[in-house]
Amino acid sequence: MIPIAKPQIGAEEKQAVMEVLDSGMIAQGPRVKAFEEAFAAMCGVKHAIATTSGTTALHVALLAHGIGEGDEVITTSFTFIASANSILFTGARPVFVDIDPVTFNINPELIEAAITPRTKAIMPVHLFGLSCNMDAIMQIAEKHGLQVIEDACQSHGASYNGRKVGSFGTGAFSLYPTKNMTSAEGGMITTNDDAIAEKCRVIRQHGMRRRYYHDELGFNFRMTDVHAAIGLEQLKKLARNNKTRQENASYLSAHLKGVTVPQVPKGCVHVYHQYTLRLPDGKRDALRTHLQENGVGSEVYYPVPVHQQSFYMAELGYHLSLPEAERASAEVLSLPVHPALSQADLETIVARVNEFMGG
């Protein structure tokens, strides 16, 4: 079976972990600091703050911007549920707008109509490794005095008009094993704002600025040096692995028949966390079954948009129509694109899709 994802862990990561274990300093320490500095440099920002996951990175970033009870945050429903849940964690409410059917990202043309007196922020999600239209989003945010929290959990190294995601507003990244780079589990917040960076550091560490002096309510969302050691080595490989993902995506797009392949708007650098097709007319599930039976892994990201999840409907009262998000959920299928694929793997993926589609 050609897997949909395969973490790339090598000898460098193993050696780095052993060095930390041998040092006796395995909690948050010098490796975390070094990882934060290197990650900030990659994104082109002043600060990076390591956390335990992408979800906690989003949660802390929202809290650092003062998002709380009674506030609203505009975001997309076509995403992993952590994007919206992180808003709920603060006491605020997600306000969903529909997506652009080409990019799968939030449609900026629909944002202003969703703004109310309670709106405090916009959370664009750079889905599948492709940046949102950040010029349009930042213009709207500036016009209405809103904060921007970028969910960049799937887009390490992606850029928009030459600028890395996570550098427009306050960014949040996931370091889960299937991402373009991993620390086994972890997250990262990015910002150019000194005050926001300080607030994030306090929140992730029990509300402490000085040891055992707790100025406010905080959490234990600290990354360990063990995780940071893996992340540092992974970061060194990110550009190379992203290039391989892009090359794999280019091959697939050039050879697949009868499907809608990913489109990349001008000015965007797509890093292909996922390579996602569209298959109309009810063909998606049948193709997935065909691939599974013939040794090719695939996955549906995401089969149910957040606003139609049972908890959001039954417990939170979400009953709205987002036709593009709903149509995407019924039509998308992601194929393997990760750096471990061989040329033979790529040829097999193409052959299995094309034989099903009649290409």
Written account of the structure:
The chain has 359 residues and is an alpha/beta fold. The chain folds into 2 domains: 214 residues, Aspartate Aminotransferase, domain 2 (3-Layer(aba) Sandwich), CATH 3.40.640; 120 residues, Alpha-Beta Complex (Aspartate Aminotransferase, domain 1), CATH 3.90.1150. 39% of the residues lie in helices and 15% in strands. The chain has 11 helices and 14 strands. A 7-stranded mixed sheet has the order 1-9-8-5-4-2-3, with helices on both faces. A 3-stranded antiparallel sheet has the order 7-6-12, with no helix packed on it. Helix 5 links the parallel strand 4 and strand 5. The longest helix has 31 residues. It starts with 10 loop residues before the first helix and ends with a helix.
